[in-house]
Please model this.
Amino acid sequence: MEKHLKVGIGTDAFPPTTDGISSVAQNYASLINNKLGEAVVITPKNPNQLDYKYNYKIFRYKSWWIPSKEGYSIGWPFKDELHQAIIDMNFDILHSHAPLATSYYFRRVTEKKKIPVVLTYHTKYEYDIDRRVPTKPAKEFAYHFLLNNINAADEVWVTSNGTSDSLRKIGYTGDYIVMPNGCDLPVMNVSEDDISMIKRKHNVPENMPILLYSGRMIWYKNIKLILDACAKIKNDGKQFKLIMVGFGADENAIKRYALKAGLKNDIIWTGKILDRQEIQGYYGISDILLFPSVFDTNGLVVREAAACATPSLLIRGSCAAEGITDGVTGFLCMESAHSIAATLEKIMDNKQLIKKVGKKAQTDIYISWDDAVKKAYDRYHTVIENFNSKNT
Model:
């Protein structure tokens, strides 16, 4: 029988900060503690934290708090006593979910005591660096910082094969393995009663096609393409409702753009939803998830939609579209509003096809977090064995 492991789950984002990596960290910590071994979340302090709600240990280290809509803290892991605190917890392995402050923290820890480290590279950080970092020297520093953190890991994981392109742009030349994320929503068909209730809540007429976007309200998720495509199909005489679930830094600008596009009466804005059952209801009432992002490396929402037999419309060649067969387990189009609109006009009235593709997505592309975390946990043992053989 394999040894129960004590795992440090490192993440720069954890509730009350909500994003994809925050969700990943929660699922790893919860499932390891409940079924496999012991996990402790290691994350920066947040003035709004409510850690008592979790049935596992959360270790918060010093941070700088910058008030913003998304509520991120910037970790500041430079004090020696912080490094010793991790060492004293006697972890078998450390697993960082971002090559940022917490990964740097783990580097400082392993300078004092050798502990194997896994890094999962979840997102295309070059997007944020190129968009937000103003000067060339600052950009070069950011790339160098990320690369050093990635190279320091004993094993690098990615959530899709396409993510390796981003790793290479950062400058990483080493090996990696694909370790997909799972979905925390159960496979289910949302009941007709629940569907009717949500439709009544938002005054959605029966038989009205319902399109869905779920995720952060940030322009680089290609939300402009969604709005432009919807404006086009509206001008072509198509009726629909577009449900926008989520919040983010560009939310107000996105709403203004939608208004200018003439979509005032066609969009339902739900805002931030934390209740997973409520979110599942929105997947359940929707005909198609629109997710044209080429930024995301895995696209958790695609599997969440599949849990409810809702197919996704994705950009051909994107990481989110990896493993999707057009017209079989999802729908693929080019990265343009015209292509999205043309695909929607072709399929949105074909309820039979949409249901068929949604059911196939539910059976073929869905992966539970139970299965995903068990696969990762089994790999931890291999990482530890390789680490021990290299350091003896």
Observations:
- Residues 137 and 143 are 10 Å apart (CA to CA).
- The longest strand covers residues 38-44.
- The chain has a mean pLDDT of 91.
